[in-house]
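Journal club prep, notes for RB
We'll compare a predicted complex against what the paper describes. Inputs for the nicotinamide-adenine-dinucleotide case:
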Amino acid sequence: MAEPELPGVVGFVGLGRMGDPMVRRVAAGGVAVRGYDAAAGATDGLAGVVTAVDSAAAAAAGAPVVILMLPDSDVVEKVVDGGLLDALGDGALLVDMSSSEPLRTRALARRVAERGVTLVDAPVSGGVSGARAGTLTIMVGGPADAAATLTPLLSLMGRVRHVGDVGAGHALKALNNLMSAAHLLASSEAILVGERFGLDPAVMLDAVNGSSGRSGSTENKWPNYVLPETYDSGFTAGLMVKDIRIALGLAEATGAPSQLAARTVELWGRAVEQLGPGADHTEIVRWLRRAGVPGPD
Ligand code: NAD
């Protein structure tokens, strides 16, 4: 069998904090991109990178591959049913790189299959900095042949891992973020305790990052966004809560133990009520500082 090649053109819908840098990697790889975002001005900075079009359907028309990088399953379904599916040709691949809900992804896959379209989920981890650098981890769910066809294209954006059937990528992404959200809370509580005891957070991080307490929060989030007080990771607290609610829903649906997951969702939910959904997720540390360590209510 011939090695899969890059498609000549792709449609890309959703050019926000992640979609913008991702589309730059795709275009730099030599793939023509037709881009659409509902927000006015989203394509202004992308002249020479994408051909801006005025609807998702126009981005999809005639393209063998269409990528979605949208907030959640609600928006994905709205866009697919709002003209995109009608514009896709038989045999097209529809790639949802958003962090969507795995059970809704499976249902959507069945619906689009009736029109000859294969849905593949390919959510990412690595944040805006990983999107810029092309070092995202991409968790692909879908048929093996579709995953193989997409690998050259997805490799322009990061490290591709085929993790199972459709929906598997979205499940794994939500579970990854549950771990990440719990790590950020746990490490922040510990660091705030140390601070009150008189330890310097930078000294603590240096020691912990060579010790068993380390995590993405101690290695990346604290040193890069919390200590410098920039709180600009580019991932909002509202999107984090969406993801961990998906993970908790999966835990409940499967009957797996989820006491820490439930508490994590509760604390993040309260933080978002006070910080607002648009706050950077690293601002949870500010919230913890203000709230002290919140009790059960
Ligand atoms: P974002 O809000 O910055 O971007 C989403 C874009 O979708 C916006 O530009 C918005 O205008 C557009 N959009 C909304 N409705 C639309 C519609 N009906 N038609 C066309 N465009 C529409 O969000 P983001 O941070 O880029 O995240 C996108 C997805 O990636 C989310 O599912 C998020 O959970 C996930 N994710 C984000 C990060 C991160 O660090 N930001 C990391 C990994 C995964």
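Talking point for the session: Residues 293-297 have pLDDT under 50 and may be disordered.
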